[in-house]
Design brief:
alpha+beta; Phosphorylase Kinase, domain 1; Aminoglycoside 3'-phosphotransferase, Chain: A, domain 2; 2 domains; three-stranded antiparallel beta sheet; 11 helices; 10 strands; 45% helix; Phosphotransferase; transferase activity; Aminoglycoside_PTrfase; transferase; CcrZ_PhaseVar_Mediator
Length: 257
């Protein structure tokens, strides 16, 4: 990594599943580095959705490194997710034409419900599919897939967990970790955010701020995508032998109304 910035920089892994992210600092200068991040990052930076992109460098071996501002700030907590800045930033993302055009230029096509269901059924192992709650959840997805239709096709983050919302010390809110971004029904992001963080009694008001009406169709779509995302998470936690989290999300499906 020294060839990237020089010997005077202290570079440390930033964690994460891929091992492709790093922190770098030298004499008060601080950068967040990432190997082989998507060109999508430049548009996210220009739109003010992620911390500012400082530079991009391509190397002879084909690796591309990006450097962003390393901001002093904090992750949002679960209770922070009711902040109006969350709904306004998500609305900005979902209505951004530059973000949508860039994903299309990168070859992304619309993520359809039948594609999601096919992946779930292919990846869930035999032990999980014998679980009664998971069996019922798959049946729910299969029965309702004809009704999961939306005229809206937007850029979805697909993991609006509170850990991905960063508040800088100058009070600027960012949504980070865009590796899973897709073109899809906005109900993918809305469902996860509302089901996890917003009391159901406040959904109508929250969606009014976003610009949507809480219809039966939207309710069903949000629930469908939440069930699908939860099934994916359950299999992921099982593969990682993180059984406590796996059981927590199975219980979440069991309690979902």
């Amino acid at each position: 990594m020294e060839h990237l910035l020089g010997q005077d920089w202290e570079i440390t892994p930033a964690g994460g599943e891929t091992g492709e992210a790093f922190f770098a600092q030298n004499n008060g200068q601080k950068l967040f580095l990432k190997r082989n991040s998507s060109p999508f990052l430049a548009v996210l930076s220009a739109e003010g959705i992620v911390p500012k992109l400082v530079w991009t460098k391509r190397f002879e071996n084909g690796d591309v490194f990006t450097a962003q501002q390393w901001l002093i700030g904090r992750e949002f907590s679960q209770s922070d997710m009711t902040d109006d800045r969350v709904v306004m930033l998500l609305k900005k993302i979902h209505t951004s034409k530059p973000l949508l055009e860039m994903l299309k230029r990168l070859g992304k096509t619309t993520l359809m419900p039948n594609m999601i269901l096919a992946v779930i059924k292919a990846e869930l192992d035999e032990e999980l599919t014998s679980n009664e709650t998971i069996t019922k959840s798959i049946a729910f997805l299969e029965e309702n897939i004809p009704f999961i239709k939306s005229e809206e096709e937007v850029v979805c983050h697909c993991d609006v967990n509170h850990n991905n919302w960063l508040l800088s010390e100058d009070n600027q809110l960012y949504l980070i970790d865009w590796d899973g971004a897709m073109i899809a029904d906005p109900a993918i992001d809305l469902g996860m955010l509302l089901h996890w963080y917003i009391p159901k009694s406040e959904w109508t008001e929250w969606l009014e701020k976003y610009g949507f009406e809480l219809t039966d169709s939207l309710m069903l779509r949000m629930k469908w995508y939440v069930v699908a995302q939860t099934l994916n998470s359950i299999q992921w936690y099982k593969k990682k032998s993180r059984y406590h989290e796996m059981e927590k999300w199975i219980q979440f499906l069991n309690d979902l109304d």
